[in-house]
């Protein structure tokens, strides 16, 4: 009984810690326009500030992503939490673009380290609930970070500081609590060798990883756009000046994604992938219609539909991959998955931010949306062909 209680406590702590890291990652989103007004930088610089976070996160996944398989989970979680606390201090005292970039670089590395180790530890702690929490917690965290910071920026004092002070206090408390966790893996040799930048994808998972890649790329590229340029897009298209808009756009996308994951938690991975590939292009079309008609309601309706596709696609990808890894391969596989995901999260958005100089934000959004629709529909076509082939094989038809 005590072991069950300990497992449940660990599961809650790990879920809240993972949620906290992702909440901190989207906290700057509603503040970008305030930073722009105060520091006078362009949309390209905005996407650079966003992009260095994701690139630093990738660097962490490529180097320390599987470190906890060798050193144990607890010390790696502790270091990640401390690094993120320091990043919050950098945000608090940021008075230039250089400080913002430095804060985002450190935050990205801490989040990359935490994402891999917390995902693996959740799977160690509970094979049934772990995959679900790995899928839901990041999306809820992103929603809470964006919406919570937006609310504080709109209604509370010190909009550029209060959120970070609250997050700093949370990370300090988590650093203290980490050492009460039970260690879930034994130390393995090869820690230094594991720091060489490489992707540790088990042989048995490689084909599945390639199969889910098109839809996974589309979902994460949409998430990257929303975390960087969507608030500016809404302001440009509708003229809204509310501080809540930036957080609300992220929250609408990620909360519906989390709700969809919970709804589909007992469905087969293939079904989730098919739903994601079907709903994402419909949502994207509605978003583009909302932009061109200057309709905030239509934009948010499209965001809700796309969010459902985002959640279904994310869950389908994770549930397709997780069963294919042995315990000592989990952190490596999750690192590889998140490397590909965060490449899709940051690189298209960085490109879009630079293209706005030439084509403008609305035209760039049209092209961005069109590419994601094509990726989603190609994934849907491949899934339907594979399903049709499976049915034919089962029935003995040619």
Automatic annotation (TrEMBL):
Keywords: Cell membrane, Membrane, Transmembrane, Transmembrane helix, Transport. Pfam families: MFS_1. The keyword Transmembrane helix applies. It is found in: Cell membrane. It is a multi-pass membrane protein. Residues 9-387 form the Major facilitator superfamily (MFS) profile domain. This is MFS transporter. It comes from the Bacteria. The chain crosses the membrane at residues 42-64, 76-94, 106-123, 135-156, 162-181, 209-229, 241-261, 273-291, 297-322, 334-355, 367-384.
């Amino acid at each position: 009984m005590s072991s069950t209680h300990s497992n449940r406590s660990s599961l809650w702590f790990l879920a809240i810690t993972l949620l906290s890291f992702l909440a901190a990652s989207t906290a700057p989103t509603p503040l970008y326009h305030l930073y722009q007004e105060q520091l006078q930088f362009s949309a390209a610089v905005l996407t650079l500030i966003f992009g260095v976070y994701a690139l630093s996160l990738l660097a962490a996944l490529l180097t320390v992503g599987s470190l906890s398989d060798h050193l144990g989970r607890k010390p790696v979680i502790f270091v990640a939490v401390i690094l993120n606390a320091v990043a919050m201090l950098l945000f608090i005292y940021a008075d230039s673009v250089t400080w913002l970039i430095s804060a985002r670089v450190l935050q990205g590395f801490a989040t990359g380290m935490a994402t891999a180790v917390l995902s693996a530890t959740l799977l160690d702690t509970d094979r049934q609930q772990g995959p679900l929490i790995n899928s839901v917690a990041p999306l809820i965290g992103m929603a809470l970070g964006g919406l919570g910071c937006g609310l504080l920026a709109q209604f509370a004092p010190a909009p550029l500081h209060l959120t970070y002070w609250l997050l700093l206090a949370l990370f300090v408390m988590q650093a203290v609590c980490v050492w009460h966790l039970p260690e879930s893996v034994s130390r393995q040799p090869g820690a230094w060798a594991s720091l060489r930048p490489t992707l540790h994808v088990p042989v048995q998972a490689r084909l599945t990883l390639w199969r889910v890649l098109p839809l996974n790329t589309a979902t994460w590229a949409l998430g990257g756009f929303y975390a960087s340029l969507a608030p500016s897009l809404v302001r440009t298209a509708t003229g809204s000046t509310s501080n809540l808009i930036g957080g609300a756009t992220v929250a609408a996308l990620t909360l519906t994604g989390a709700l969809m994951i919970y709804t589909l938690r007992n469905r087969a991975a293939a079904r989730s992938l098919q739903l994601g590939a079907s709903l994402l292009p419909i949502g994207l079309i509605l978003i583009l219609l909302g932009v061109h008609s200057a309709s905030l309601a239509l934009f948010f309706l499209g965001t809700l539909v796309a969010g459902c596709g985002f959640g279904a696609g994310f869950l389908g990808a994770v549930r397709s991959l997780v069963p294919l890894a042995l315990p000592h391969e989990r952190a490596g596989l999750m690192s590889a998955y998140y490397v590909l995901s965060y490449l899709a999260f940051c690189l298209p958005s960085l490109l879009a931010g630079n293209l706005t100089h030439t084509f403008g934000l609305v035209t760039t959004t049209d092209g961005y949306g069109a590419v994601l629709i094509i990726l989603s529909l190609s994934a849907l076509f491949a899934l339907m062909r594979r399903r049709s082939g499976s049915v034919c094989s089962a029935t003995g038809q040619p």
